Amino acid sequence: MLSQLGIIFLKIGFLGFGGGYAMLSLIFAESKTLGITLAQFADLNALDVLMPGPIAINSATYVGQIVAGLPGAILSSVAVMVPSFIFVPLYLHYEEKLLDNSYLKGALSGMKNASVGLILSVAVLLGKDTLFIKGQVEILSVVIVLGCLYFNLKKNVNPLILTLVAGVIGYFSFYF
Asked: Is 135 left (phi over 0), alpha (psi -120 to 50) or beta?
């Protein structure tokens, strides 16, 4: 299981373009092969907002911990970072040539568009699982989502504060 974790997170590190949020769909797809459920993945996203650090490393640590305990968490975290240790020095060495390459600019433009689609796909997947439980609309979840959208977009409330408030609301609605 450890070797499978290492290979999966090396692959994610090498193929994950567009930053952490764009990598989430790749992380979810690969994590499903390890037995991670959609509910666990939703928990990962909620915890990621509260935890400092890059999304890819937090996700790798979380999935590795669930699948293989502390050794899995360490291996997954290191594996997802290895490509950065390879690509960043290479990029810095060839930066001048890369910035003037029209082929690379076109490829990056396409990847940027794909990243937006990947982020949206994860949002839809998690939204579907969160807002609809057993085919029924979860009213409190819809209210929380719409409230967070309103306060973030219109009132510029910090997303961390919104996440904490949503967590408190969810806690009290679950236990009371």
From this structure: left
- Indicate the length of the chain as a whole number: 176
Reading the block at residue 157, the tokens are 């409330």
The type of residue at 103 is Y
Rounded Cα–Cα distance for residues 42 and 129 (Å): 9
Cβ(19)–Cβ(40) below 8 Å? no
- What are φ and ψ of residue 157, in 5° steps? -75, 140
166-176 pLDDT per residue, tens: 999 999 998 98
CA dist 71 and 160 (Å) reads 30
The torsion angle over the Cα atoms of residues 117, 37, 62 and 4, rounded to 10 degrees, is -90
Question: What is the Cα–Cα distance from 82 to 125, expressed in whole angstroms?
Answer: 29
pLDDT in tens, 140-153: 999 999 999 999 99
pTM of the model: 0.78
Q: Specify the pLDDT at position 64.
A: 97
| Burial 53-64, CB ≥16 within 10 A → b, else e | ebbbbbbbbbbb
In one-letter notation, the amino acid at residue 41 is F
Residue type at position 138: E
Coil, strand or helix: which one is 153? helix
DSSP state of 37: -
